Amino acid sequence: MKKLFTRFQEIVLLVSGWFTSIMVLLIVFFLFKEGIKIFGKKPVEEGFVMAVHPNNLVNSISPGMCKDIFDGKIENWERLGGRSYPIELATLEDIGSLYTEEEIGSEMEHLDSCFNDYINKHEGALISLPKSAVSSSFKGKIISVKKISLNSFIRGIEWFPTSKPVAQFGILPLITGTLLVSLGAILFALPLGLACAIYMAEITNKRTRSFMKPIVELLAGIPSVVYGFFGLVVIVPLIQKVFHLDVGETALSGSIILGIMALPTIITISEDALRNVPVSMREASIALGATKWQTISKVLIPYSLNGITTAIALGIGRAIGETMAVLMVTGNAGNLTLSYLKPIRTIPATIAAELGEAPAGGMHYQALFTLGCVLFVFTLAINIYINFVTKRRRM
Amino acid sequence: MIQIEKVNFFYGIQKALNNINLSVPQHSVMAFIGPSGCGKSTLLRLINRMNDLIDGTKMEGLITVDGMNIYDKKIDIETLRKNVGMVFQKPNPFPKTIFENVAYGLRVSGMSNATELKDRVENALIQAALWKEVEPVLHKNATNLSGGQQQRLCIARCLAVNPKIILMDEPASALDPISTSKIEELILELKLNHTIVIVTHNMQQALRVSDYTSFFYLGELIECNTTSEIFNNPKQDKTRNYVTGKFG
């Protein structure tokens, strides 16, 4: 009976262990399964193709160029390697307004001839038409839009996932935004957190410590929207005033808020690490005539460096993955910038803000999953790096 | 050299030392013996003010080193601790290289000249009879050394800053007999230039290395005399009972 019970306990523990591990792997698997679907697709509206005049030399077009054309930044085919004709855009709506209902037909059955007609008349035409309108008699030349590749996805500098007729999936501004805010958060939180940990572990007496520690731990329990709210009412106006900016919602505001959010983790872990330094180390240093500060900087900090590195890793992890607070204070503009005084947009904030609007299974939806994969790769890389560094130190 | 007059010491409200009067002559070895909790380590740590690190302690009385009151407010504690070095019960090298361990005391007192540091480190290691063993691994981590080597490294580290007095808190109690005998030989050599106070549980050790012995019991100094008198002709019954192993 007793044996059976022990066996049962073992099985429960075994199942728990495997369940958790498999769960984590499953999450990663589904994330990537959904995330890689975006690659190899053409970022045009579903069911639509792009076509030009048959004499046009251009055979394919990149999503970025296409957007520039529709934004009016590129106005001549020469820029795209064609003959010098002004570009004339036409979408389904334009055709609808150019031709009468009779010409198109009540069921749009003559749509193809309208497009044919338009193309014949305009040598510089670039049209976006439904696939159904492409019949065997269609005279225009269908040009291909370049597929989304990992390269264009990561190095693209524009993120307009809902732009028509060609969506833009470039996440470079989101990557730089995320890294900028996280780096800023660590630069802000590490010195402050470390100083606070040293103060609590080494300088202050028991009473102050027993009063400070719960407060710091309380900081970890505050929901992130509340941080965001605090940032919105306090930090954002402050930054706007101090730097005389048009908008205070900047990478700097995000960094400060994230830094504050990472503080409890950094303080608690580094303080534990410092307090775990054996008394004998402290005594050895003091007995050699070292001052308190020399003891802290030359013995205690090097001794607890592993703990402090862990604190940094967890702090960065929190900063990179944090969604709500950054969403509220960074302005959410996909700027490709390295300035802390401009609005930026982070990966998690993008996912949170856009997932509700993206139709499930659509290209936008898949792109958001791909963003999730990128975020996962980032945190994984940081973890591996930190692990590597701490292991090397231990040897 | 060291004068201790009417010293009382308290941990909170608990009195750990009661009216201790003692003096240690220059270039001699004084052993503190007595059962656990008798206050011998506490007294030792008073001589370089290590007890300052413990919250809620209080010291009364006078301790002078070279005629200087070390509990005077104006005294520079760091200089005092460089003059009065300390070796602890458990070897406690820093997790740095052997060289950096020995150089630590010099570096914190501001020495940065590389050749000077190298000379001082080498000298200290030679004095601690460790140079030959560690010369090839000078820049390897000190924690790879054996326990006995680590303790001699700690002695070298202490010697590097040229202390006049060395306090040793049961320096061999965590070591094997061979390492212990090496440490004891070292003490006899160091005696020529240093004043040494050693706390020990091992009465044979006190007999082997010390010139004077003080016997403590329950926070009181029962008897202090030359070592041969204490072990062969003790004046107090308690001392006789302790050194003959009847209690302790």
The biggest sheet of chain B, with number of strands, parallel, antiparallel or mixed sense and barrel status, is:
6 strands, mixed
Query: What percent of residues of chain A are in strands?
Result: 5-15%
Helical/strand content category of chain A: alpha/beta
Total beta strand runs of chain A: 7
Low confidence ranges of chain B = none
CATH topology of the largest domain in chain A: MetI-like fold
Helix/strand order of chain B: EEEHEEHEHHHHEHEHEEHH
Oligomer: heterodimer
Mean pLDDT of chain A: 86
Shape of chain B: globular
- By secondary-structure content and strand pairing, the structural class of chain B works out as alpha/beta
- Major beta sheet, strand line-up of chain B: 6-7-8-3-9-10
Overall 3D shape of chain A: elongated
Q: Please give the share of residues in helix of chain A.
A: 55-70%
CATH superfamily of the largest domain in chain A: MetI-like
Radius of gyration of chain A: 29 Å
Question: Could you please describe the fold and organization of this structure?
Answer:
The complex is a heterodimer of chains A (395) and B (248). With 395 residues, chain A is an alpha/beta fold. Chain A has 2 domains: 48-147, Periplasmic binding protein-like II (D-Maltodextrin-Binding Protein, domain 2), CATH 3.40.190; 172-394, Orthogonal Bundle (MetI-like fold), CATH 1.10.3720. Helix content of chain A is 62%, strand content 6%. Chain A has helices spanning 2-35, 63-70, 92-98, 101-104, 111-121, 150-155, 172-203, 206-221, 224-242, 251-275, 279-287, 292-303, 305-321, 324-329, 347-354, 363-394; strands spanning 48-52, 60-61, 88-90, 125-130, 141-145, 159-160, 168-169. In chain A, the strands form 2 sheets. In chain A, strands 2-5-1-4-3 form a 5-stranded mixed sheet. The longest helix of chain A has 34 residues, at 2-35. In chain B, helix 7 (177-190) links the parallel strand 7 (165-169) and strand 8. The longest helix of chain B has 14 residues, at 114-127. Chain B starts with a strand and ends in a 5-residue tail after the last helix. Chain B has 248 residues and is an alpha/beta fold. Chain B has helices at residues 40-47, 77-83, 98-108, 114-127, 131-134, 147-160, 177-190, 203-209, 227-232, 237-243; strands at 2-11, 14-24, 29-33, 57-65, 68-69, 84-87, 165-169, 195-199, 212-217, 220-226. Chain B has a 6-stranded mixed sheet with strand order 6-7-8-3-9-10, sandwiched between helices. Chain B is built from 10 helices and 10 strands. Classes of the chains: A alpha/beta (395), B alpha/beta (248). The A-B interface holds A 205-206, 278, 280-291, 294, 298-299, 302-303 and B 48, 50, 53, 55, 78-79, 81-82, 85-86, 88, 90, 92-96, 104-105, 107-109, 154, 157-158, 161.
